[in-house]
């Protein structure tokens, strides 16, 4: 079973009960590579969340697509897999489209909500879009890390075969992103309390 809801969750909790989708725990090299992959994923999650907070509709979607492509390139470089931009775009599009109700529709609607004066920018930019952007980037990262860890490449990644894993990781990502936001909000309060 894969660990969930932590900022460093690219490992398997108990290899004896690991599912087909989980990454098996192996050598020190694998552990190190997974730690590096975790940093790559979270770096792109944070950037995706930041771009999601931009109050300008459509700009956020274009920026998010760019960070998700960058994520695939960085993970492929880490694993020594030849990056294929065309395949990456197709895989991202297919996986993003698998989330119930269509995450693309949600992203577009939340982006357009930002056009509403005052409340629209707050709801779209501060509340909803960063979480959706971060969770979808997290899930994509997990799918690519898992696939490359098993020796796969862009051409052997079938969105149909990993869509269940993507959906599961999207839910894990929503919780992990929410926890990260909560920790970020609590940190200044803790620092202020410690200074007093």
Structural features, described:
This protein is 70% helix and 0% strand. The chain has six helices and no strands. The chain has helices at residues 28-52, 59-79, 85-96, 103-113, 119-149, 159-195. The model is unreliable at 1-8, 11-20 and 119-125 (pLDDT under 50).
List the SSEs and their pairings.
Elements: H1 28-52, H2 59-79, H3 85-96, H4 103-113, H5 119-149, H6 159-195
Helix pairs in contact: 1-2, 1-5, 2-3, 2-5, 3-6, 4-5, 5-6
Radius of gyration from CA coordinates: 17 Å
List the domain count as a whole number.
1
Write down the overall mean pLDDT. 77
Structural class: mainly alpha
Shape by Cα distribution = globular
User: Which percent range describes the beta-strand content?
Assistant: under 5%
Instruction: Give the helix tally.
Output: 6
Order of helices and strands: HHHHHH
Instruction: Give the low-confidence spans.
Output: 1-8, 11-20, 119-125
Distance between the ends:
43 Å
Top keywords for this entry?
196 residues, mainly alpha
What's the short story on this structure?
This protein has one domain. Helix content is 70%, strand content 0%. It is built from six helices and no strands.
